[in-house]
Specification:
mainly beta; Porin; about 45% strand; disordered N terminus
């Protein structure tokens, strides 16, 4: 494993500086036009191969692969390692192109195949802070989202919606500055969207989402089936109750602004689950569940073109009722440093920290508070290929208040 880490580190270093050399070479020929190659494409093959089909029919396919290697290096004499792989494929069909008339909307579908070694175990690593990777799950083939979507411009603002099989964290809780992190807590907040109640990364359910925007203000509302399917390998994507005996409501309000030319965003949202005792697995005897969250991101330094060079963010999630959740309080915060190497305009260096409070019922297995620090660097090799080394420290972990050190690397390819 030590050799694997050396190879991964070397690959990351070579990638950064080799790509930097390519960028410098290109910059020596100002104004020179060159034919598009695979180094310039957002998609290696599919987008260019289907360009004519997309223009004629409105059909846009996609295929992505994500591969990772993770190691628990807390005890150098006993390093535990897993490798995992995720294939995601899907399409969108613009119905207006087929109909030859505007306003018909679009349909979309996504599915994935995930596999891993060692069952996702990293040598007894145990934390309620969230998983070290936001793609880790059980081996499975699963249909994810299936939807119809449309948007309309009115004098009162822009209105859009999606309806079908949806995942709540696709539309709620997210912020641009938190998206770069690989720890799952920086995506769906683990107390605001506990897995037994709401859709997480790899489980979707029936629902409808409505979007509204006017100027810098936006609002999102969602209604979902409250009895989702369990995140197990045998769930092919449709293992949820369709009786709608309980529902989940989501809402989020956001505002984009600028202070002295520096862009920022603030959001407030929450959710309500009508009866978590009716969940078909891991039910909660709490009457109802509700939570709130807020978020703020702010650019602090711009580059010469007015784009963010350095920015910070924070999110806070709160569940008022201790009966409904083992985790009443959650917070994360961090910074993004864009293009830290001058010739690497699309790279991001980021550091984030998250903390979660465990209620008394959960402290027999976990500590009162747990924290996770993530340090990551996303290398955008080409628009279609990214490499991301990552290091995480989990503090006050488990009932023995231990510290765990997790090192890993991710490679993403958009075919």
């Amino acid at each position: 494993m030590n050799m694997e880490k050396v190879i991964a580190a070397a690959l990351g270093g070579v990638t950064i500086f080799a790509a930097c050399s390519f960028a410098q070479e290109a910059s020596t020929q100002p104004g020179a036009e060159k034919p598009e190659t695979w180094m310039d494409r957002d998609s290696l093959f599919i987008a260019s191969a289907s360009e004519d089909i997309t223009k004629k029919t409105g059909f846009t396919p996609s295929l992505n692969w994500t591969g990772e290697v993770w190691s628990n290096v807390s005890d150098g004499r006993n390093i535990s390692t897993i490798a995992d792989s995720l294939f995601t494929l899907g399409f969108e069909q613009d119905l207006s192109v087929l109909a030859g008339k505007e306003g018909w909307g679009r349909i979309g579908l996504s599915a994935f195949y995930y596999t891993q070694t060692n069952g996702g175990e990293l040598g007894g690593f145990n934390s309620s802070q969230g998983c070290f990777s936001n793609i880790v799950a059980g081996d499975m083939v699963r249909v994810f989202e299936i939807y119809y979507a449309n948007e309309f411009e009115t004098k009162f603002g822009n209105i859009g919606f999606r309806i079908g099989q949806l995942a709540a964290d696709e539309d709620f809780m997210g912020m641009d500055y938190s998206d770069v992190f690989l720890n799952s807590s920086f995506g769906a907040m683990p107390n605001v969207a506990p897995g037994q109640l709401f859709s997480q990364y790899n489980v979707a359910t029936l629902g409808v989402v409505i979007y509204y925007s006017q100027g810098n203000f936006d609002a999102t509302f969602g209604v979902y089936n409250g009895n989702i399917g369990q995140d197990i390998s045998s769930n092919n994507g449709f293992d949820y109750s369709n009786t709608f005996d309980t529902v989940a409501l989501w809402y989020q309000f956001g505002y984009n602004y600028k202070i002295g030319g520096l862009a920022g965003r603030v959001m407030f949202g929450g959710n309500y689950h009508s009866d978590p005792s009716k969940i078909n697995f891991d039910a909660i005897d709490a009457g109802s569940f509700y939570s709130f969250y807020v978020g703020l991101q702010q650019a602090l330094i711009n580059d010469n073109e007015g784009n963010a060079k350095f920015g910070v963010y924070t999110r806070i999630g709160w569940v008022p009722s201790g009966r409904a959740s083992d985790n009443n309080f959650y917070a994360d915060f961090g910074f993004n440093w864009f293009a830290p190497i001058p010739c690497r305009g699309s790279d991001v260096f980021a550091v984030g920290f998250s903390v979660i409070e465990n209620e008394r019922a959960a402290r027999a297995e976990y500590s009162h508070y747990e924290g996770a620090l993530e340090i990551t660097y996303r290398v955008q090799i080409t628009p279609a290929i990214a490499f991301q080394p990552d290091f995480q420290i989990f503090v006050n972990q488990g009932e023995d208040s231990e510290t765990a050190y997790i090192a890993g690397a991710r490679l993403e390819i958009n075919f």
